[in-house]
Amino acid sequence: MRASLLALAVALALVLPRPTAAWVVVRAPVFYAPRPVYYAPPPVYYAPPPVYVAPPPVVVAPPPPRPPAPLTTKLPMNTQLSELPSGCTSVSVKGEPYQVCGPNWLKGSDFGPYYVVVPAPQ
Length: 122
Fold this sequence. Notes:
The protein is an alpha+beta fold and 122 residues long. The protein is built from 1 helix and 5 strands; from the N terminus they run H-E-E-E-E-E.
């Protein structure tokens, strides 16, 4: 390609009148702009720290109240009890309801929720 450019320059010099100077074609180097470099940082993924959730407290029901101890001693007559001791059994003698608690016979009171110690029915 250089040779053809040089030949063109010589041909032009011969054709053109003398007073003009020779034409010289200089090919300028081609400048290529560098490609821009794009830098994209890697994506950052954010995970919040784990949250500790305490389990609900275990609610333990209080134990049921203990029943009164079974009655094993003989109580005096006409003693009033507000509740029956444990181990009492219901007995009906001649249509009358009684509670037998160990050696004692109890009958429901007519004046409230009491039990009265009575002699054993005959």
